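Checklist before submission:
- one chain only
- standard amino acids only
- sequence pasted in full

Submission:
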Amino acid sequence: MTDQLSRVFAALADPTRRDMVARLTVADSTVNDLAAPYDVSLQAVSKHLKVLEEAGLVSRSREAQRRPVHLEAEVFDLMTKWIERYRRQAEERFSRLDAVLAAMDEEGNPTTGIRTEGTAS
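Returned file contents:
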């Protein structure tokens, strides 16, 4: 996977990483803070953070002895734009379907749109 959008979606495919991202929306956290609710090693949490970091979702900085993990919220703009494009396309298809169904209803055949005159039952 070379494009960032694919890396972001792949990183968020894991429920633990999604939970970490959700917790980082509240405040920056240390690896120890992020590891606290999970029954996994610090090494496992660090691996999850590395995946998130490679996707551009988080960054780590150094504050004296602390290395807080920071959520890079602007990456969500990339995802939002991609999702929004397809949401709009789906809405347009549903609007066209609504128009077809309304026209069928006006013609008196609301269920199928198939002319049944002169056909044997």
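Reviewer check: DSSP finds five helices and two strands in the chain.
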